[in-house]
Write a structure and sequence with these properties.
The complex is a heterodimer. By secondary structure, chain A is mostly helical. Chain A is built from 13 helices and no strands. By secondary structure, chain B is an alpha/beta fold. Chain B starts with 8 loop residues before the first strand and ends in a 6-residue tail after the last helix. Chain B folds into two domains: about 220 residues, P-loop containing nucleotide triphosphate hydrolases (Rossmann fold); about 70 residues, Alpha-Beta Plaits (2-Layer Sandwich). The chains are: A mainly alpha, B alpha/beta.
C-alpha cells in the first residue's frame, strides 16, 4: 500500500476554537444576501423584472383608460387601474421568487443550508426578505411610471401608511403561498403550472378593472373572501383617494377607518397564516 | 464497539426507514475517536449516505441515537451542526455565485464575523489551489476545482468533525488523486475527526484508521484495514472453475487446502492461504486435477473481505 503524501499545508489550530452561534438576524441577513446575489447577479437580472410594471404603467393602463375612460368612485380610471396593477405584480413577483426555492432544492443548495447551524425557519425568512424587497421595488417602479403617465395619487401620511401596510402584508402572504407551493410541488414545471390559478385568476375577481359590486352576486361573495380584494380596496383608499368606496363594497359600513382596519386585519391574517404554513411545510418536506 | 462519552461521533442502533418502507439503515452502531479518520465502506445503496445525512441532521432518523462532538443530533441539532461540516456526494455549491461568495456565505452561517471570515477564506484559498479562480462564478469551474472549493468551504469553520460523502465519485483519475492528496493532508490538522464514505477500496486503505463495512444497512465488519485484511491470511489463491464450483470446494477442503473462509463469486473460487506459501498451494491444487481454467495468487484486498462477508462486490 502506498501512502499519499500531503501537499496541503493548512494553518493548524492549537485548540478547537469556540464559536458563537449565528444570531437570528445575522443568519437571515446572510441568507437574504445569498438569495439576492443569486436572484440579481447582474443588472440585467434586476432590470428585466421591472419591464413588466413599466409596460403596465406606460402602455396597458393608459390604453385601458383611453378605452373605458370614466371615473370610478371619484377616481379617474387611469389611477384606478394603475393602483390595482399591484394586485398582479406582487403575486407574479413573489411566485417568481419562489422558483428559487425549487432550484435550491433540485440543485442541492438547500441541502447545504440544512447542514448549517441555524434555525431552519431562518431559511424561509431569508428568502421572504428578498421576495418582499423585489416586489416592493416593482411596485415603486409601477407607481412612478404611472405618475409620469398621468395617474394622480393622494400622498397623505395616513393614506401612505395604509398603502404600505397593505402592500407589505400582501407580499408576505403571497410569498408564503409561493414557498408552500415550492416545497410541495416536485418539479419546476409543476410549479410554473400553478402560477395562473394562484397569481393571475384572483386578480380578475378582486375589483381590478371594475368595482366588485359590478360582478354577479355569487362572484362578489367570492371576491370578498380573497385577500387581494381587500388589498386593492386598501391601496385605493390609501393612495387613490377613493374615500373608501372599495372598502364599502366589501363591508357595507359607514366608518371608513374601521373598514380599512378590518381589511388590513384580513390581509395580515392571511400573511401570518400563509407564512406559518410555509415554515411548517418547509420543515416537514426539507428533512426527509 | 468503543463508544463512550469522549467519542467525536457515537452512533447507537441508528435506523432509517424512508416513506414507502425502504429500510436504508437497519440499526447500526459505531464510535469514532477524536482525530480518527473513519471510513464507511460499501456499495451504492448500502446506507452510507443516509447515515451521513442523519449525522448531519439533514435526514431524520427513524430510531436510535447519534451524537456528534457530544451533541445529540435529534435534541441538539444546531450544536451538532455547529461542530461539524459536510461535503456531500452531490454538488451543493451555488453555481451562479463566485467561489469567494460561496466561502463567505458558509463562513457567516457558521457564525464568523467579517474579519474572521476574511481570515479563514485567506487561509484555505491558496492551499486548495483556488487563488486564480476564487473570483469567478462556480459554473465556470472544472469538476476538480469545484470539488476543491466544496472541501475548502467545509473547512472554513474549522469543524471538529468533517463528513466527506463519496468525495471522489465521478471524478477522473487525476482529480481523484489530487483530492486523495488533499484529504490525506487534512489528517495533519489537530483535533479534526473525519468520517469518509466510499466504495473505492484504495481510498479506504490509504486514508482510514478504521473501516466499517456496510451491507444492506448493517455494519458487517469494523476494524482497521490491516486487521480486516489479516483475516484473509497472507495471500488469496483465485481459481476459475470449469464445472461444479461446490464440488471443487469440497475437494479442496478434503485436502486441507481450503478453510471456512473460502468463498465463490460465480465460477471463481477464492481460497485464503494462511499457513503455507501461495506458490505451494497453487502447485498442490494443480496436482489435484480439478477442472481449473485459470489459477492465480495475490495479496488480499478489502474487496475480498467484503465479498467473503456478503457475497457481493463493492463495485456493484
Amino acid at each position: 500500500m502506498t501512502a499519499v503524501t500531503s501537499t496541503v499545508t493548512l494553518e493548524t489550530p492549537t485548540a478547537v476554537r469556540p464559536r458563537s452561534r449565528t444570531g437570528g438576524l445575522a443568519a437571515v441577513a446572510t441568507l437574504a444576501r445569498r438569495r439576492f446575489a443569486i436572484s440579481a447577479r447582474t443588472p440585467r437580472e434586476l432590470l428585466i423584472p421591472l419591464l413588466a410594471p413599466l409596460l403596465f404603467a406606460m402602455v396597458v393602463v393608459p390604453a385601458l383608460a383611453d378605452t373605458f375612460g370614466t371615473a370610478v368612485g371619484g377616481v379617474d380610471y387611469m389611477t384606478f387601474v394603475a393602483v390595482a396593477t399591484i394586485g398582479l405584480l406582487v403575486p407574479l413577483s413573489c411566485i417568481q421568487s419562489g422558483l428559487g426555492v425549487v432550484v435550491d432544492r433540485l440543485g442541492g443548495g438547500l441541502r447545504d443550508l440544512l447542514a448549517a447551524p441555524i434555525s431552519r425557519p431562518m431559511i424561509v425568512a431569508g428568502n421572504l426578505v428578498v421576495a418582499v424587497a423585489l416586489a416592493s421595488l416593482q411596485v415603486a417602479v409601477l407607481l412612478g411610471a404611472a405618475a409620469i403617465r398621468g395617474a394622480e395619487f393622494d400622498l397623505e401620511a395616513t393614506g401612505v401608511m395604509w398603502f404600505v401596510a397593505a402592500t407589505l402584508a400582501f407580499a408576505v402572504a403571497m410569498y408564503g403561498a409561493a414557498e408552500v407551493l415550492a416545497n410541495r410541488l416536485p418539479t419546476q414545471e409543476e410549479y410554473i403550472g400553478a402560477l395562473p390559478p394562484v397569481a393571475i385568476v384572483p386578480f380578475f375577481f378582486a375589483g381590478s378593472f371594475f368595482p366588485i359590486s359590478a360582478l354577479p352576486a355569487g362572484l362578489t361573495v367570492i371576491g370578498k373572501l380573497l385577500p387581494i380584494t381587500h388589498v386593492l380596496a386598501l391601496v385605493r383608499y390609501g393612495l387613490a383617494g377613493d374615500n373608501g368606496a372599495g372598502l364599502h363594497d366589501i363591508w357595507g359600513m359607514s366608518n371608513t377607518t374601521a373598514m380599512a382596519a378590518l381589511s388590513l386585519g384580513v390581509v395580515a391574517l392571511f400573511a401570518v397564516a400563509l407564512t406559518a404554513t410555509a415554515i411548517r411545510t418547509f420543515q416537514r418536506t426539507a428533512v426527509r | 464497539m468503543t463508544a463512550n462519552h469522549t467519542s467525536a461521533i457515537q452512533v447507537e442502533n441508528l435506523a432509517k426507514t424512508y416513506p414507502g418502507g425502504v429500510e436504508a439503515v437497519k440499526g447500526i452502531d459505531f464510535a469514532v475517536s477524536p482525530g480518527e479518520v473513519f471510513g464507511l465502506l460499501g456499495p451504492n445503496g448500502a446506507g452510507k449516505s443516509t447515515t451521513v445525512g442523519m449525522l448531519t441532521t439533514t435526514i431524520a432518523p427513524t430510531s436510535g441515537r447519534a451524537r456528534v462532538a457530544g451533541s445529540d443530533v435529534a435534541s441538539q441539532p444546531i450544536a451538532a451542526r455547529q461542530a461539524s461540516a459536510v461535503v456531500f456526494q452531490e454538488p451543493v455549491v451555488d453555481r451562479g455565485l463566485t467561489g469567494r461568495r460561496n466561502l463567505d456565505v458558509h463562513a457567516r452561517l457558521w457564525g464568523l464575523d467579517t474579519v474572521g471570515a476574511r481570515r479563514r477564506i485567506a487561509a484555505v484559498v491558496d492551499p486548495f489551489g483556488l487563488g486564480e479562480v476564487i473570483h469567478r462564478p462556480v459554473d465556470s469551474y472544472s469538476g476538480g476545482q469545484r470539488r476543491r472549493l466544496e472541501i475548502a468551504r467545509a473547512l472554513i469553520s474549522e469543524p471538529q468533525v468533517l463528513f466527506l460523502d463519496e468525495p471522489t465519485v465521478g471524478l477522473d483519475p487525476r482529480f481523484r488523486f489530487e483530492l486523495l492528496d488533499l484529504i490525506a493532508g487534512l489528517r495533519a490538522r489537530s483535533g479534526m475527526t473525519i468520517l469518509l464514505t466510499t466504495h473505492y477500496l484504495d481510498e479506504a486503505e490509504q486514508l482510514c484508521d478504521r473501516v466499517a463495512i456496510v451491507h444492506q444497512g448493517r455494519v458487517v465488519a469494523l476494524d482497521s484495514p490491516a486487521a480486516l485484511l489479516a483475516r484473509l491470511g497472507r495471500e488469496i489463491v483465485e481459481l476459475r472453475i470449469d464445472g461444479d464450483v461446490s464440488r471443487a470446494v469440497s475437494s479442496l477442503r478434503a485436502e486441507g487446502l481450503a478453510g471456512d473462509d473460502s468463498f465463490a463469486v460465480g465460477a471463481t473460487l477464492h481460497v485464503p492461504v494462511h499457513d503455507r506459501p501461495a506458490r505451494e498451494a497453487v502447485t498442490t491444487i494443480t496436482e489435484l486435477g480439478l477442472a481449473v481454467t485459470a489459477i492465480t495468487s495475490r495479496p488480499p484486498t478489502l474487496d475480498d473481505v467484503y465479498l467473503q462477508l456478503t457475497g457481493e462486490s463493492l463495485a456493484a
